[in-house]
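Mods, move this if it's the wrong board.
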Amino acid sequence: MSHALCLDNSTLQRQVTAAIKDGYLERIADPQGNVARKICLTALGAERLSDSRAQSIASLEQILGDWSCAEIEQFAKYLNRFNSSIEEYSEAKRA
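Not the wrong board. Structure tokens:
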């Protein structure tokens, strides 16, 4: 998971521990019976995630409200290209 999120293990562990303490995540036994433990989103975590997404969407709707469809499509295209370039750069640095 740390590789997917581009975080070192200690940073990820601190973030997970804080989210568990705040009630957003919980540790569960591995359903396959392995020694490793898994984490799961709690009901509170799901609620907060939903609220955060709704707030982000509302903000974007307000910010982009006077943009044309063509402008939004062009912005999305550039943003996608930018994000792909960042991923390529990060992967090249790790290699």
